[in-house]
Specification:
This is 1,2-phenylacetyl-CoA epoxidase subunit PaaC. The chain is built from eleven helices and no strands. The chain is an all-alpha fold and 303 residues long.
Length: 303
């Protein structure tokens, strides 16, 4: 009987029969064909730090969303949430690759092999204090209504930033933003439709939606607080000061909550951007244990 090639054989043959590292190799270079030259007058270390901020937000939120796989209220929604997470993982990969290309952490000092790609080293082998994500994306999911409220807020904030980043002097950031705005517009609209359905639905769904919104709103406290890196890169026409997005974000969220017959909570007072500076609560450590556990136990694994 003739040998029938399996999908695993095909994967192996596609790379010359050599074992591939299990957590990321075997894909095209994420920045292949893109001009990765750092713009004149821009500190590469600060550009890399900024890419970590944006990339870590995407990576951490994607991990939170995958917690709903097999647990969503509808099969169709399970697929939708997974697709949103995949979009964010794609953004994270590009942004972490950009951070690696300008020398952020080089190849992580915790790497076990030189074959580990930079973006994977940054995702799997950094400690919690090296992450630059906000509390908004790191907070536990809560119930489905709270997850939808968080997705609405996070995607609205991120879309406002990415829309401006399309004009960045850094060609990589501009390219990532150009693609990302379409994904983020879908994420925001998907969450908005769900919040309308829940808020203007049954008495129970309305109550849960309001509780979800009330739980998420305090997490906006540091979202509009820029770091010095963000301020300098904004002045260099490379990054975006999050404070410049406040009016747009508040307008969108106010309109959605009004249509969903939900009470708009008070906007929290601005707080220091602790997450952007590597200061996190135990929830991020717990999340990273799940994300990084397998890679750390088997750092040189191949398939």
């Amino acid at each position: 009987m003739a040998h029938e090639e399996t999908v695993y054989d095909a994967l192996d043959h596609a790379h010359g029969g050599e074992g591939q590292w299990a957590f990321g190799t075997g894909f095209d270079e994420p920045l292949a064909g893109v001009d990765t030259t750092v713009p004149d007058g821009v500190d590469p270390a600060e550009l890399g730090e900024y890419c970590l901020m944006l990339g870590d937000d995407a990576l951490v939120l994607a991990q939170r969303l995958t917690e709903w796989v097999t647990a969503s209220p509808e099969l169709e929604e399970e697929v939708a949430v997974a697709n949103v997470a995949l979009d964010l993982l794609g953004q994270a990969r590009l942004l972490l690759a950009r951070a690696g290309s300008v020398g952020v952490l080089g190849r992580s000092r915790q790497r076990a092999t030189d074959s580990i790609p930079d973006e994977d080293a940054l995702a799997y082998f950094r400690a919690p204090g090296e992450f630059r994500s906000t509390a908004l994306v790191a907070a536990p999911n809560g119930d489905f209504a709270q997850t939808i409220a968080r997705l609405l807020v996070a995607s609205t904030v991120r879309l406002a930033v990415f829309a401006r980043l399309r004009e960045s002097r850094d060609p990589v950031l501009a390219a990532i933003a150009g693609k990302g705005v379409h994904e983020l517009a879908y994420h925001r609209d998907h969450a908005a439709r769900w919040l309308l359905r829940l808020g203007d639905g049954t008495e129970e769904s309305h109550l849960r939606a309001q509780r979800g919104v009330d739980a998420v709103w305090p997490l906006l406290a540091d979202v509009f607080s820029p770091t010095e890196v963000e301020r300098r890169l904004t002045a260099d026409r490379v990054g975006v000061d999050p404070a410049t997005t406040r009016e747009e974000v508040q307008s969108v969220l106010t309109e959605v909550l009004g249509r969903a017959t939900l009470r708009l909570p008070d906007w929290p007072a601005d707080a220091p951007p602790r997450g952007r500076l590597g200061e996190h609560g135990p929830e991020l450590t717990e999340l990273l244990e799940g994300l990084q556990g397998l890679a750390r136990r088997h750092p040189a694994a191949t398939w």
